[in-house]
């Protein structure tokens, strides 16, 4: 009897500390050839970014300031208040980052890849994830600027055309 209890306890303990590797949600673009090559994460994941443009006009985080730290921690104000996110690079798609985000009401995961950036003025990102109880991935192309009044930078025109994005 004691052996059964010990084995059960060790099994539960092992399960509690098991690492579940996060993988990209089915339905998201993999962007193998379209991401920013040699992304300098120390330059990108620092300071404030403002979400100025989105292919989803109902994006509740539009015009929000994202405070980003080099350790892949970011914060912003969402629909229901402050959102805190902790990020990690995906192992199977190393140009993607998963962000485990929490609000006062829920926890959710978003996947993000940087398509283009100059680090000091603008960034074009692809974001994908499941929303609520949905089973199909929803994606969004986003333009971030270091200036809250930033526009669509000329430098990303060709990248936008590659994805059939003519206007935001």
TrEMBL record:
One of its GO terms (cellular component) is extracellular region. Its main location: secreted. Keywords: Secreted, Signal. GO terms for biological process: symbiont-mediated perturbation of host defenses. It is found in: Secreted. InterPro entries: Calycin, Triabi/Procalin. Residues 1-18 form the signal peptide. Belongs to the calycin superfamily. Triabin family. This is Putative triabin length. It comes from Rhodnius neglectus. The lineage of its organism: Eukaryota, Metazoa, Ecdysozoa, Arthropoda, Hexapoda.
């Amino acid at each position: 009897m004691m052996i059964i209890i010990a084995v059960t306890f060790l099994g539960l303990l092992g399960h509690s500390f098991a690492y579940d590797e996060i993988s990209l949600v089915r339905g998201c673009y993999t962007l193998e050839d379209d991401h920013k090559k040699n992304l300098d994460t120390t330059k990108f994941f620092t300071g404030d970014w403002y979400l100025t443009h989105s292919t989803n006009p109902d994006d509740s985080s539009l015009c929000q300031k994202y405070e980003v730290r080099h350790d892949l921690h970011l914060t912003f104000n969402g629909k229901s208040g402050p959102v805190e996110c902790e990020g990690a690079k995906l192992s199977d798609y190393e140009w993607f980052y998963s962000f485990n985000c929490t609000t006062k009401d829920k926890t959710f995961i978003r996947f993000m890849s940087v398509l283009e950036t100059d680090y000091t003025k603008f960034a074009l990102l692809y974001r994908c994830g499941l929303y609520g109880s949905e089973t199909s991935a929803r994606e969004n192309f986003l333009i971030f600027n270091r200036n809250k009044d930033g526009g669509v930078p000329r430098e990303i025109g060709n990248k936008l055309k590659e994805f059939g994005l003519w206007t935001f």
